[in-house]
Amino acid sequence: MAPPLVADPRRKRLSDTGNPAQAYAAKAAASVVLPKSKSKTDLTGSSRIPHILAESGTAVELATGHPDAAERCFSTLSSSGSGLGDRTALLQSTDASQVLGVTVTYGVSTQAGMDPGGFDKDNQDAWLVVENLGNTDNMFLGVFDGHGAEGRKISSALVRQLPHLVSGSPAYKAQKFQTALTEQFLECNNAIQRASTINCALSGSTAITALLQSGRKLLVANGRVGSYMYNGQTVGPLRVWLANQDIPGLSMTRAFGDTVAASVGIIAEPEFKEITLQPRDKYLVLCSDGIFEFMTNQQIMQTVHDKALAGCKPTDIGAYLIERAREQWIKEEEDVIDDCTIIVCMLDVTVKPKAHGPAPAGHSRQLQRSNTIAAPVRRLLTLPLRPHLPSFYILGFPKSGTTSLANHLKRHPAIGGLAGLPWHETLSKESHYFNGVFGAKHAYSAALYRSFFPTILSRWWAEVVLKVDEWKCFDACPMPACLPYTAARIAALTPNAKLIFMMREPVAGVFSAEMMFRNMGMPLSWSLVDAVAADDERFQETAEEAALWKQLDSLGPTEPLPDNMPEIFYTRLSSLLRCGQYADRIAPFLKVFPPENFMFIDFKEFINNTEQVLEQVFEFIGVDATRFQYEELPPGMKTDYKGRRMHPSVRQRLQEVFQDSNSRLYALLGRDFHWADVEKA
């Protein structure tokens, strides 16, 4: 009888409990499509695919296709693992309204790992690439990660058989690609479990595949592994373990074979995500779990981006990432390294409208634009019904808890937030008005600012129906606290407003802001993860940056914002460093508002004593705290670090940067926040 499986999110290597449990990690596993292998040689290729990071416990590879060429398939099954050299492929197709083209430059790198005890092992990763799956214009990529004694057999069988089954299925020929993949994944899984030559009781393979359809649509089956909560703490992915066995756990929800894992909920049916490629999509990266175990999405994609800009080829980038991953395995596990496989694709997507596209498609695009424009227009037409400006502001600083505080306050019957606008997902909380959401020339108009807030019906409902004493509305945007010209503009619009500043130990705040920007896909050219070099320029403000801040310092009340402000303010480290110098940022507000209009909240105090801090806020803004029922809410904008840590040398440098500002803040407020004991980012 096979040993029981247990799910234990707290441990990485061994579980002591023997109770069977259902383990649902994240999206690891079962998907692949490709025709029979024709080559094991190193190749190099190009094709275009989007800036997407797909991950799973499987090997990786990539390929591309020419619409006028026969079906091409590249795969590797060798024990040492062979990659695919740099290749280039062009996929072209046309529809009724557009001419589409995707050029992909790609390469595959793979390397076998090391078993417990430091012994070399066979590479159980397998990858495949089909340039024209089923002699169509569809290109297929796949990575498979075998596990257990028979793992290599299973991943190899999938590479050989799955593509043929998918391309020959009626659903595939009818262009029902998700149906085709699902049916054949399940069929392959059943065949593997029935095979007399494979003992899959404790062996199987995960998989991730990408199907590029007719040059533009990308269908990804299975992918990234998420985080889970255990006793209120974020932990790594749940893992399936053999009880009392000193072997690595498996992080997966989907796999081929492995009948024991299937008994606790591991399935073969894939999960899909479909993406329409756009010209902005530049990279596609498929990785096995050996790379993702200790490297985050952001680290990988930033590395790919930086290396590509430096002129590196896909195979060179893949080899570099594998080496970095193996270094982390040795550092963390000492005598265990997982197999590592990665496909790196550089994409060039072309979308050109036809000169005379059909009316329906054009009508659809026009309707979409009309809907985007209609909401702001309706907002402006109803300005007579929108007399409200904020009674108070949650100015805060980035990553200091402004979103969480706003979410709590909006649950009070006497408090209303923004009415929201259609083109930005955060505008239900923060207006971004003073930093130019309506354009550089319109960051001072009271009428435009009123359009963000609810109509008089909201106030009537609160005061007449709900019988609150006085209804209030607010704006909760952290950016005005960082910009020197906003204090005077806020005072001109709302001279009696209350101001709530939320502050966080600035070293942790800056690092958390970096992680947020990276998760949002911001093009950052710097990182706080890397060590400080002797000639490090990250912390030095450039002449262009200094000139911008000098211009912002002297900006008049109705002057337009500088054209280069968004790029510098949102992507430069110098901007975050200025935001974290709280004493200098608060000073302009102290000049135009009386002291009694200020409230300062420490982020840690808010997190540790949320209910008590809310009571103080209600008293400060003048609403009845007894009308509020406190509930714990999900985190507002909680940053996903995914294993990233600030380098100690960077932390020390940042402490030096903020030391003087922190001391001046303590003196200014007459309060010591004890930030010398730096919050760990």
Q: Find the CATH topology of the largest domain.
A: Phosphatase 2c, domain 1
Structural class: alpha+beta
Helix % is: 25-40%
Strand % is 15-25%
Unreliable segments (pLDDT under 50, ≥5 consecutive)? 1-73, 75-81, 224-251, 354-374, 420-427, 635-643
Mean pLDDT over the full residue set:
71
Distinct helical segment count: 20
Report the principal-axis shape.
elongated
**What CATH architecture of the largest domain do you see?**
4-Layer Sandwich
> How many domain modules?
2
Main pleated-sheet profile: 7 strands, antiparallel
Task: Give the total of beta strands.
Answer: 23
CATH superfamily of the largest domain: PPM-type phosphatase domain
Pfam family, one: PP2C
Domain PPM-type phosphatase: 105-347
Binding site for 3'-phosphoadenylyl sulfate: 504, 512
Family: Belongs to the PP2C family.
